[in-house]
Predict the structure.
Amino acid sequence: QVQLVESGGGLVQAGGSLRLSCAASGRTFSTYYMGWFRQAPGKEREFVATISWSGSGTYYSDSVKGRFTISRDNAKNTVYLQMNSLKPEDTAVYYCAAKRLFGTRSSEYDYWGQGTQVTVSS
């Protein structure tokens, strides 16, 4: 069982930056791939980024590649999402999630946080 709690969301102007954090409970954090997803009003939840167990491997959606960076600190049981050059279309509720293997589909993930709101004003 893994419990996830996101933080760091807020309101930012276009072009600004935010860093999201996701704290995980349990001693098995380092055995999970971690992912970030987002869901805008009226839209389906979409994949943003994922990171491997050790943090050596990352993968991004085309819409955030080059602007967002996912990282993790296994000693702190925390995964991060650094978001730079934010755009109004990045506005969404951002969720972190955990699964044992690589994946980009939300249906494949076993554990989810409650989400944190990110709003980017133009």
User: Anything to note?
Assistant: The mean pLDDT is 96. The CA atoms of residues 37 and 103 lie 12 Å apart. The longest strand covers residues 92-99.
